[in-house]
Design a protein that fits this description.
heterodimer, A: 442 residues, alpha+beta, Cytochrome Bc1 Complex, Chain A, domain 1, 2 domains, six-stranded mixed β-sheet, 40% helix, B: six-stranded mixed β-sheet, 17 helices
Chain lengths: 442, 458
Amino acid sequence: MQFTRMRLPIDTFRLPNGLFVTLSEDHTAPLVAVNLWYHVGSANERMGRTGFAHLFEHMLFQGSANVAANEHFELVQRAGGTLNGSTWLDRTNYFETVPSNQLALALWLEADRMGRLLPAMTQQKLDTQRDVVKNERRWSVDNQPYGTWWEKLPALAFPPDHPFHHSLIGSMEDLSEASLDDIAQFFATYYTPDNAVLSIAGDFEPGEARRLVEQYFGPIPRGTSRPPLPSMKLPPTFGEWRRELVLDAVMLPRLYLAFRSPVFGSDEYYAASVTGAILGMRRGSRLHRALVRDRQIASDATAFTFDLPKGSDLLVVDVTARPGIDAEVLEREVAAEIDTVHADGVDSTEVERAVALIETDFVSSMQAAGDRADKLSLFATYFGDPRLLNEQVDRYRAVTAQQVNVFARSRLGRDNRASLLYLPREGDVESAETATVAVTGA
Amino acid sequence: MTTADVLQRPTPGPSRDYRFPAFERLTLSNGLRVVVAPVSKLPIATVVALVDAGAAADPQGHEGVALLTARALAEGTERSDGAELATRFERLGTALDASADWDSAAIRVTVTTERLPAALALLAEVIRVPSFPEREVERLRQERLAELLQQRAEPRGLADDMFGKFAYAADSRYALPDGGLESTVDALSQDVVRAFYDDRYSPSSTTVIIVGDTTAERARQMVTDAFSSWAGDAVRQVSVSDQPAATTRLVHVVGKPDAPQSELRVGHVGVPRLHRDYFSIVVMNAILGGLFSSRINLNLREAHAYTYGAFSSFDWRKSAGPFTVSTAVRSDVTDAAIREILLEIDRLRDGGVTESELTLATSYLDGVFPIRFESTTAIATALASLVSYGLPDDYFDTYRSQVRSVTADHVLAAARNHLRPDGLQIVAVGDPTVIRAPLEALGAGPVLAYDAEGNPTS
């Protein structure tokens, strides 16, 4: 079988209550993945409740009407399955991969918490998970070198009233304020079948799967209304170079340089994604070759996109200095490399290298049922069409050097940059607060 | 359909059989061994060249040379310089991943089927005729020094490295990180790398593992074309001393001023991979700290909310790798968290496990087995461990029945024989002004203080 002819079988149906379901069969191993996306993330949080969508995700593992606290984990693991959940700016997902004879259990567990979560919620569980999440924040942000980039960059790149501006993990103060009333309201508003997508991938019989989905999810009532998000729309560029210096407990300077870029799924997105791979994917990329190998001013260089489907996506370049290299030199040299691509463009061999790497990663990621199910949910949630998964390689293969250069010309200029420059803090610091100095200007 | 049907917990139907992918072995006339597992779900394949050139073979004073040598393979050959090699691999849609762990160097690529022959030929080139250019070796050495510098501010890696230092006797290779320390990396050079390569890389010390969309016959032809003219001598066997640093319990506080959390590592020297209690230990560890629903995580996270997560592990190596409980806890509960970890270890040794806990662990390990091998990369990694440790060819076919045969008595015996509360080394990377006094008061053992480079402080 050649990859050009590789197509995943994909079927879809919708329950009367609005739940959209995607099925993709593969009988090569006796396992099946269940993946549920709720179209809600930190973007939907209200003022004073940053971090709530993620805290709520934790609460979904604290039991439901017919499942005890932490029993969801135990039942799936006892069945020989793996599971987890994650929260992102605009969605929250929950997933299990189980032996195929345990499909009913995975579906039943997801349906019980979608339909009957609130009877299991208690103040004590909320207080415990609040403290667990505060520890997650300390672990991933506060006690991790450069860990604050994750909230500082969106804060710099999106305006204060934009849904992507605020912290996903949330502030300690806002986490402290979250209440059981907030849980009930959030659940009723967003955790409804008409705001969710369910994907099943792997070894199952389609008639049986459909019967189980109808039986377990069918009785759950559809939601009433969801408050509309404020406009996500943004100009295509920042119109300036926004710079922020961050003094942190790090040993080496690091630059995060972001560009506003076309939203995920658009025609221009694929050119932006390929540009990211040309700049920072693997050792043959522009930045690695120029800054790590040839000039030896960086110890590492990568690039990635956030893959946001609304408002504006971000392409981010992430470069760490070599010991002895000043932060200003790092910023200047990275900027010079970007300026070259902006001014002179790239050639078709660089595009071919990038697309070949992306293609292998894509095929490789389609091996695991859980990854396939997650991607099916993604395309179903964002675009209402999971079959778009089968078009991704063709979309990448269609990208030309000319399209990359149109992107580079319009989006990599000095009028479309937002950067965080991390600097080692000198000596002992009195305050636990991270000092920041904001400098704005092109 | 009634409401009762919806609320009723489903029961599983009969399970379908699963077999770990069949594989074939062969040996070329030069001694190079080959393992091929045809897996044709998707048009992709993974190649791992496994060489008996891991950190265990680092000469004393040159710790880190195994890792540096593996990384330097792709930095130049007799035909191409490093930049050209990167481009040649990447235009095939793959990137060479070359690294070394304790027992082996592993040089890997994953590539789409039609590019497999070209990728395998290129992989053979970097293994057979690397040129180790002085400039590139020096650059990679500097990059390793940058990693070590970064580590001083990164509490997780720092805690791991410090734990190795405090768990193993100073003359054990395991006392130093597998990539070496500043002092040993400073001593590395192009000549040291070349000498290590000449000493360890040879057809007889190499196994090429191919997993994916190919046949045994095609794989045999490709490997023969790529490697059969490679000549080399037999490689000397090495073994690492796994003597502990201390036989009494000690508390090591590694200072990270202002840290809002303490990174904890609690453990001691464990057991070698080929131990006859392996399956009992795996099940015992799953109950103690190997699963979300394990005792340590339910205690530290779900009952006390001290942490985002806590787990335990046995690190399997040819000699005895460490047993470690790992977690990060709020600074002001550092002492309380350590007390709970010690209590859980004692409780397992004193009271054993319930039938429910036993079946949770065994049914998880049994049931999840097929889910562990969904990708060519995962299957190749499993075969690499089979080769590296010399496990029998039916190891994966008997794995599930071995797990199911573990009893509560086996688990209790494993806990009593392989968890040693009196020999635990307790490492806390955190703010000494907050955690030191409570740790003194805890009475878990004498408290010793260090800076972020492991030098004793007052």
